[in-house]
Each structure stands twice: as C-alpha cells, then as structure tokens.
Amino acid sequence: MEARKKAASFLTYLLLAVSFVLFVFPFFLMLVNSFKNNGEILESPFSLPHSLDFGRFAEVIDKMNFFVSFRNTVVITFLSVLFIGIFAAMTAYYMVRRPTKFNNGLFALMVASMIIPFQSIMIPLIYIYGAKLHWIDAAPIPLLIILYIGFGSALSIFMYHGFVKSIPYELEEASLLDGCTRPQTFFKIVLPMLAPTSVTIAILNVLWIWNDYLLPSLVLTKEQDFTMPIKMKVFNGTYMNNWELLIPALLLTILPVLVAYLFGQRYIIRGVSQGAIK
Amino acid sequence: MKKTLALFLVFLMAVSLTACGGSNESGSSASGSPEAGSKDGKVSIIITNGKGEIATQWEQAAKDFMAANPDIEVEAISQAVGDTVNLLDKLTASGKTVTMAMMAPDSIVNKYKDFGVDLSGEKWNADTVYGVKDASGKVAGFPFSIEGFGLVYNKSVVEKATGGTFDPYSINTRDKLKALFDKIQASGVKYPVAYQTENWSVANHYSTQFLNQAEDPSTIVEQLKAGTFDLASNPVWNGYYDTMDLLASPQYNKYGERPLGKYYDDAHLSVGKGESAILFNGNWAFDSLKAVSGESFGFIPVPVDNNPDNPLNNKIAAGPTNILVINKAATPAEQDAAKKFLNWIVYDQKGQDFLVNQAQIVSAFKNNPNKVTNPLGAAIAEAVQAGKTLPFSSNYVKVEDWGNILAPDIQKYIAKKESRTDLAKVIENYFKTQK
Amino acid sequence: MITEKSRLKSLGNQLFFTGPTIIFFALAVLIPFAYGLYLTLTDMTSPINPIKFSGFGNYKTAFMDTAFWESMWLTVEFVVATVLIINILGFILAFLVTSGVRMQNFFRTSLFTPNLIGGLILGYIWQFIFVQTLPSIGDKLGIEWLRLGWLGDEHLAFWAIVIVTIWQSAGYMMIIFVAGLINVPKDVMEASTIDGANAWQRLRNVTLPLMVPSFVVTVFLTLKNAFMVYDVNYSLTAGGPYGSTTMVSMHVVQKAFSENIYGVGQAEAIMLFVIVAVITGLQVYFSKKMEVAA
After folding, report:
1. Which residues, if any, are the signal sequence (chain A) (predicted)?
2. What is the CATH architecture of C66-293?
3. Which residues, including other chains, have CB under 8 Å from residue B435's CB and lie 6 or more apart?
4. Predicted ipTM beyond 0.85
5. Chain B hits for C148, Cβ within 8 Å
6. Which is nearest to A245 in space by CA: A256, A255, A234?
C-alpha cells in the first residue's frame, strides 16, 4: 500500500513537472528575452541574456505612461469584476431557486449571448455609445465598466448556476423561517458558501478584463484613460514589432495578475475550510 | 422589504458613485490638457495617422504645428497596428468628423471615393509629381510617404561575390540575375535568395508589377475589368512569374523545398546576417534588417525578361503609399486648417524635419533638403531623383482583395499546386466581378 | 422552491436579484446586437457610408459564399480536434494539482500562464518553434517529416493551430475544474473509501457525477472558443498557406472589415452565431439535465 502510494505521488510529480515545463516555457522565454535587444531576440530567442540590464524596463515604464495606465487598468478591472461577481451570484441564485419561465428564458438568452461574435457588435457599440449617446466622450471609463458588467455576467451566471444547485436548500429554509428576508438569506447564508466559486469566477474575469484589448480600444480615445494593453500597442510596427520593448511591457502587465492569483489561491483554501466547518 | 429596498439603493449608489468618480476624474484631467482649453475662435481639427510606428512623431508634429499656429487646435490620433476596425471608420461611426485622414492611395478611388476634397489648387502640387488623383482625375491625396520595393540585397555579400563595387542597375535581365545568383553561390553562400512569401508581398506587390507595362497602369485594370486583357498570353505577366520561379526555386531559395510558411523574420535574419543575399521586399525591410546587422543594403530592379533595354528591367517600383485626404464633411475653416498643416509639412523647416529626419520617411517633395539615414529609404530617394522609378503598382488595385482573395491562389502557384494558366483565369475572373 | 406569499414581495425579489443584471446585459449585449441585426439588412460597404435598407440580400450573398462554408467545415474539424483533448487534459491537470502534492499553488499558477500571454507574443514564440526550432531538431536528428517548417504545409499548419490552442486553453479549463474538485465534499469521499471503493470507482461514482456542473461549463466554453477561434489563427498562420487554414471567424472579419462588404460580413457573423447557438444550446440543455441537485 505504502509503495503504491509512493509510486502514485512520484507519478503525480513527474506529470506535473512535464506539464510545468511545457506550459511555463513561454513565460520563461519572455523573462529571458526582456533583457535582450531586437537582434538577439530574433536571432536566438532561447539563449540566456548577456546581462541583466533593466534599462528597457525603465524605458517601457516611461513610454507606456505606466503608472497612469496601471491605475486605469486596476480601477476598471476591480470595479467590473466586483460588480459582475455580486450581480451574477444574485441572478444565478434566483434563477436556480425560482425557475419560472421568465427566469429560464433569461438564462437561455444569456447563455446564447456568449456565442455572439464580438466583431458583429463592435460597430453597433461605437455607433450607439458614440454617435447617439456620446458616452464615449463624456464618461469612457464608467461606460467601459458598464459594458464589462454586461458582457461578463453571462459566463459568471452560467458558472454560478451549476454550483448554486449543489447548495443544500435546508440551510436557507432555516434562515427564512427565522424571519430573514430572501436578500438577507442570500447575503448571510448563500454568498459565503459560494466563496470558492466566486474566487474562481473573479480570477477568470480578472484574466479577461486585465488583458482585454478589443473593448477598451473601441471605447477609450483619450491618452489619460488608456489601459495597459492599449498603451502596449505603441511597440507594434506594421512590418516589424519592437520586441525589445514589447516583451518587457507584457511582463510588467501580467506580473500583477500572477501575484494576485497566488494570493487568491490562499483565499480559495481558506474558503473551503470554512465551508467544511459549517 | 425596507431592507431590500435599502440594499438595492446601496447598489445603485455604488454604481452611480463609481460613475461620478470616473467622469470627474477624466473631466478634471481633460481640462488640464490643451484640447479642452480651446477658446472661441479657435479651429479644432482631428488628423489621423495610419502608420502606428510613427505615432510619437505624429503627436510631436501636431504639437510643433500648434506652436506655430496658435489659432488651430490639433488632435492627432494614430491607428494601432493590427486593429480590426480602421481608425477612420471607428471615429466616424462614433460620431466624430475626422478632418484629415491618412489612407492607402487606392482608397480614394475605391472605399473612400466620396470622401476627399479637391486639392489640385494647392501650392505644393508644384513641388511634387506624386499627388494622387481621385476617380474624376483631380488631385485629392497629399503624398505623405514614398516607398518602393524590389530585390533587397546585402551589399557586402554581393560585393564579395562580384568582386569590387556593385551597381544594382547592372542587373537588367533575368539571365544576369541568374548569373549573379551563381556567383553568390560560388562565393560560398549556399542559398543566395531567402524568398519570403507573405500574402501582401506575393500578391499586392509582386503580382501587380505587370500593370507597369502600360504608361498608366489603370488602363490595364480597365481592360481586365472589361475582360479584354488576356493574361496567359501576355509576355510581361508571364515574365514576372518566370522570375518568381527563379526566386523560389530550390536551387537558389533557402525555402525552396517548402516555399510557403511564415518565413518573414527568418528571411530578414538570413539576409541581414549575410547567410543569404537577396529577398523581395520594400524599404520597410530595413526595420527588420537593422535589428541583426550593421550592413548596408540596396535595391536591384526585378527583371521581367532578357531585354536589357526594357524600362521595366531598369527601374524600381516606387510611389506614394500613404496619402492624406481632407474630409468633405468638415467645415471650410477646418479644411483650411488641415491644408495649412499640409503646407507646414512641405514648407516649414520643422515640418520637413518631422517627415524625413524624425519619421524617416522618403519625402515626395523636391524642396525637402533632408535625407533619410536608412539605406533602403536612401536608395528609393536616389531612384526618385534619378527618375528610375515605375509606379507603385499596388496602388492601382484593391489591396485588401488581393491580399485576401487572390493571394491564396498566387501562393498555390508558388507551392506548385496551381498552374499558371489557372492562376491567370482566377485573376481574370476576379476582375470581371469588379464594377 | 421559493413560495413568496405576496405577489408584490415576489416582484420585489425578482427586481432585486435580476434587475441589475438585466439592465447591464441589455446595455452591453441586447441593444447593440439588435442594432447589429438591423445592419445585416442594409447594404453597408463600410461603417462610414450612409445606411441604405436592402432586405435579405446580404444573407443570400452569404449563403452562396462557398468560402464561408469551407471555412466553417474546417472550423468543425478544428472543434472536433480540440474540445475533447482540452477537457481531458484540463481535468487531469486539475486532478493533479488538487491531489495534495506540495507546491500545488505554485503549479496551479504556473499552468495557466499561457493564457496570460496574448495572441501576438504567443504567435511569435510558436512561429519561431514551428518555423525554426522543430526543423533544426529534425535536421540534427535526421527526422524527415520534421525537417521543414510546419506552417508551409496545410495539414501541419492546421495541427500547429490545434496544438497551440490546446496548450493555451488547458490551464484555463483547469481552473474551472479545480473549483469543482474543491467543492466535492470530503466526507462523501471518505465514506466511499471506507465502503471499500478503489480510486477508479471513487472517481467514476463520486467525483465525476459531482463534477457535471464544471463539465457543463468547460465543454460549453471549449466548444464556443473553438468555433470562434481567431487570435491564434491570425497570429500563427494568418490563414496560410494559401488560405488553407482560414477559420470561419477570420473569414467573417476579412469580409466585414477588410474586403469592405460590411453587411455581408455581418450577415455571416449572424449565421455563425445561429449555428453555434444551436450546437451549444443542445449541449447545455442535455448536460444540465445530468446535474445533481443537492
């Protein structure tokens, strides 16, 4: 039995190590190439850099207007993810607990909406919020957040929907019998139990919004509103990209997300153990 | 129920608060920036730039221009490279009037044929021959950049093979080109050619060259549309594909065994480092070449046959590749302000400096005293000076169609999956569907 | 399940729980989509031109566009090639990183890094691998079929897109599976262990049924992503060689935004939407029935 366990754990590590190498090498390549110039990157992307010169990072921070674009990205991502999470959890919960025709229809509609090719609503979005309502000029960042909440709710509701089903109804019943209203019950009983799912959904939403280029490129027109993916575009060329700046820029952009995910992990574990105590 | 309502109100407030916070913020920072500080009597214009790589220089140019013209407010916007929606379309759809837009020369007879104002009365027409005409024959496009394409060669590799200084215009027949390849091979370079086959290169650039057999390439386009031009029996059309066969042949081409397959970076790397000597591309190739090499480069004309007196064999295709067009829908005051900007580029010292020294663009104007430092750009500028240029043939076709619709067939031809007669039919049929 | 006594209260709850979502959803998706539908009935060549009503002409052109159906068929092949592998691989990875090995947080984080690195850099790195690295390995080891660049051969180029897609998506799906696996109650697992079930039986009888909600989501997402594939297609092969790897999204984008027949492109996008909506709709409908309610 012991030997089998050991063999199993060895196999697990082996598989993880292999996938680790396969999955992480592009990240490793980026790390390595962020210290090289264009010639070295083109000639031998796999070689190690000659020196650890942080000069290009400084240049990138300057050219990307890093602190402004970083702040914009944080504000947009944080608010969008927060509201998507809360609204989607509420809606999914209600849809599961109250499967009326209307709610089922709404659910189907939202699932279907995820399949809409984004390219087919690009022009309508610009037209409605630019030419007709002028929100693109008046309040681009709030508009962007509104759009993210709208686009993001479908997938999040879809994911919550399955998980809400697996929450025992007895707990809610008790709370309702105690005289709590339904919203109170939701926030006191259900939402905490959805914590692990919420963190996962938040992570997926952060991954999407943090790196998204298309939507901000349509809505944001002024320098001071730009997010990091938009600012990164200054390093692209029609025939030749400025890799020596593009790669450090990308690295600076994704590092915060990686760090946040490592922290998020801890929260998942804690959320689960709390759920177990109940 | 009260609590429910309260909670909902909190949500609404939270939403509206963030909305307020956001708009205040952008509002306050906007008022600090120059464009919001415009007073009455000032003209505000929007000018767009289609070359993402000169975005910084474009903005600087706008600032310098505004310093010289305090009564004009310029918003300079650049297209990001690789965007799906074209900047002009995007801004127009969002309700803005772009005063002056940069576009490809073929656009003013195709996609944006009703967009531009007549510029034929402008002073700068006296200093250039490259003004681009719209369908009615009036100059509507200000030639912003001159670019050219041909056989890009690595000087030191070729000079080592030929021994001594090399005159690229001495290669004026296909046989001489073949002989050059043999010499380069003999000097120890296994594959003289690194033939990259990107769709825009083989279709828009290479495959439109046959149009230059007529003084005015558009006459051939008209014949093709009318179905009266027979490609398969046309010696010039065939001649360019004979030369292409030579460039792509396994004997000389680094990728001869599998001639297709995303070799752009690798080809420039090879020629830059001197592992190969020649590739087919335009002056923009230097962006890639300079990354790996301090070498010098030049252009050899693409030979079409073995007649050394054929002008096609002695000239390089070069012409305007980006034009500035002023919007009919803009107010007269805005149009005048945009015209001022064009004059500033041509006649103001700072404007001339912006175009050539800062943006490294070959100027279409005789009076610009500056010279680009990039050797391929310089070669184009010299060819322009010496009158050794043919029209930039892709300007006479719809470049998007060639890149998307016709390029696959041309690539099939290169991969030997389609015969030349079939290719001729495909191109002829395409033109018959064009109005 | 919910039985509100008063109708007013029920309406209040409905508004409270679904109201905000409906408002935002309508603003971002429903209204623009409706307008987009209207645009398919116009003869818009580019977004800049004035709009003229043209009836169903665009749909007729789109139906007759053989290149659209060819790219659609290729996309179906692509869907078949990717959906199964991504789900299996994602599940195995999730299983490994929740098995209690040390450093599992580190592994979880690292396995989704491919997803963070956008299409452009990804395309460049993989182009280098397919055009230069693999051929040079083939050359050195004398492996004939590896000797030439992958992206110049229509079959190899197709598989190159498949490989990169799997590699990019498996980690993402892993995150969703991890959430599902964590939700499997420990006591149920322990009980079945005490009952004498072996690892395989536990997986089949306990874990997999409880993982259905995750699979509903991942299969849906992989189906949808595969049908809509664009970024990897564009940055890796750009449809080449000779247009043989042009998937349907790329075809639609070319029609709408580069060949200047916006209305037709828009109509093809709607057709794509309907086809994929039917397929994924069936998938969600049937797999939702397998979910176990506690």
Report:
1. none
2. Orthogonal Bundle (1.10)
3. B225
4. yes
5. 257-258, 261
6. A234
